[in-house]
Amino acid sequence: MENVFEKYTNEFLTFKDYKNNGLNGIALYPAMMIDEMQKCILEEILKIYEKKENLVLLDPFHGAGTTLLIAKQLGVNSIGFDINPLANLITKAKLYDYDRDELMSDKNKLFDMLDSNIRFHLHSFDKIDKWFRLDIIEKLSKIRFCIMKIENKFNRLIFWTIFSNVVRKFSNSRSSTFKLHMKEKQKIDLMTDNVIFEYKKELEDALTKLSYDACSVSTQLLCGDSLKLLDSIKNESIDIICTSPPYGDNSTTVTYGQFSSLALRWIPREDLDGYAASVDYNYSSIDKLSLGGSKRKPSNNLVYLNEYLELISKSKQQKIINFTEDYIDVFEKLSSKIKKGGYIIFTVGNRKVDNQLFPFVKINDELATMYGFSKVTELKRSILRKRIAKKVSSVDSKAVESMSEEYILIYKKEGENQNA
Ligand SMILES: C[S@@+](CC[C@H](N)C(=O)[O-])C[C@H]1O[C@@H](n2cnc3c(N)ncnc32)[C@H](O)[C@@H]1O
Fold first, then answer.
1. Where is the DNA methylase N-4/N-6 domain (predicted)?
2. On the chain, which terminus has fewer CB atoms closer than 10 Å, C or N?
3. What pLDDT does 385 receive?
4. Which CATH architecture has domain 2-81+213-413?
């Protein structure tokens, strides 16, 4: 089967002219995958199967929902998990099949309220005036109040999703990093307060991209820790696992939680997944709950990992151990959920820590062999358009370089595939 992937050269997979301006691009989220790439790869895998109707794809780290959206377009049922309530909300908003008339009527109601002199409460949370200018707080509070007046909770999904973009855009945090980092005072003062105009414009645009056709494909989305949620899936029930897992602990790789924390403080908890109620929203809580966020003891004998740990300083070793121990647990659970002959498609990168390349591809290969998978292929692509700063974080005051290449790893579980 590896021959079918020969045409997917680095040149092809780089998607030089790609613009994320379709449905997948309506919401801002860090490190989003290229939907066209996911589509090509998944289509290739699906050719193996006689029938697609009964297949189930799992994305245990769905992020902004790129893979789940493609699975839906290709007619494949899916299950998706993510620990970040904002990721869960925007993915739900993209996957929902709206009733066009009802949505347009609610949008008109919302716009009428926004254009009126409606009385609203000023929203407040800890340090709100650090992250937002007072006039911006007023406008965002008005939008929030008006969205809450809309009764249809599914229509509110898309209203909140676009609201989260606008919260980010008009906050005092820089757009050049996913971390919360104050803009210079002069830039804050110069921001034009056209919040409501921007919101309406972005919402109008998003409404042209949503799905309005009732679709028979099922998508089940759950917010929470994959490690726990995987226990709710029957063993050997998944045909394809397709995801882009975190490459390291969030606080030193991509701070998905911090990125989302401002928007999450504006969106009422009742409109987020029930899991959100259990999350304390300080600015780093989601990142700490994510893979690699808490302390673990080394308990594995992975060759590449242990060789790597020797190369880096003691102060950096613990974070690598925390992440890989969690990752190994997830890998083990995933391997029990997949059917014999099923496929894993992982998009991963090798980041540098302490100036040494963390061999994540080799660690995945080692785990795959350990849990009964054979490697189908490894495709490499250069990352051109990821909104990742070249230096993403600073640990012990030294910069850690981010990756500029990623790999698509395809593994097949041993055994006869019953559906092929
Ligand atoms: C690389 S991103 C996925 C990006 C996604 N493929 C896309 O195109 O948007 C990884 C995701 O893993 C999530 N994550 C990290 N630890 C998790 C955990 N323990 N359980 C569930 N999701 C987790 C993060 O919130 C993040 O959204």
1. 41-85
2. C
3. 52
4. 3-Layer(aba) Sandwich (3.40)
